[in-house]
Every structure is written in C-alpha cells, then in structure tokens.
Amino acid sequence: MILVSLQVLLSEENVLQKLERGHWHAITLPALAALLCGFFWEMWNHYSYPKWVYCIPYVRRFQIFEMPLLGYLWYLPFGLQCYVVADLVARLAGTPEN
Fold first, then answer.
1. Which of 18, 20, 63, 72 is the most exposed place for a label (fewest CB within 10 A)?
2. Looking at the whole model, is its pTM more than 0.90?
C-alpha cells in the first residue's frame, strides 16, 4: 500500500484506479498467480530434505503439505505486492503495462 500511495501522490495510474474502472483482473490475477506459486512452493518444500516446518498453535490441524490452510491466505497480498512492484519497475524502465 505504500507504493500505491506513492503512485497516488505522484498522480500515476495505480491498481486502485483500475478497480474503479471495473478491471478486477488487476487484483485477481496476481493474487491467484501467487496462490498457485505458493502451492507449488509448499509442495517442493514438503518433499525436500531440508524443509521448513510451520508450528503455529491451533491451526496445525488443516494442512496442505507443511503449510496450514490459513497460511495460504498470505500469498494473496504477496501477489498484489509483486504486481505493484513489477508495475513500478516497468514504468521506471519506460514500458508501462496495460
């Protein structure tokens, strides 16, 4: 949200303006892409020898691989963050994304 706030202050197009125009794909596609990548990331973690094990009280019951189901929700804002950063880098490089 900090980068989006900077884009608003600099009067540049941002993801919130795309939502105002009804372009929900600006949020749904990056969030779902990150969720899919997170699924594969956790799958590879599960089958690797040195692996990350999550020990979160009260949510260890519903797991997909090593990650509790609730933990997958954090991939959604991560995908949005990646989208905003990629958009910013593309604008700085002079090739804005449509």
1. 20
2. no
Q: Which domain holds residue 44?
A: 2-93
Q: What is the pLDDT of residues 50-78, one digit of tens each?
A: 888 777 777 667 888 888 888 888 899 99
- State both tokens at 23: 């372009």
Q: Do 56 and 67 meet the contact criterion of CB atoms below 8 Å apart?
A: no
Instruction: Provide φ and ψ at 56, rounded to 5°.
Output: -115, 120
Q: How many domains does the chain have?
A: 1
- Residue 48 inside a domain? The answer is yes
Quick check: helix, strand or coil at residue 64?
strand
Closest by Cα among 16, 4, 20 to 84: 4
Taking residues 24-33, report their average pLDDT: 89
- Give the CA count within 13 Å in the CB-facing half-sphere of 34: 17
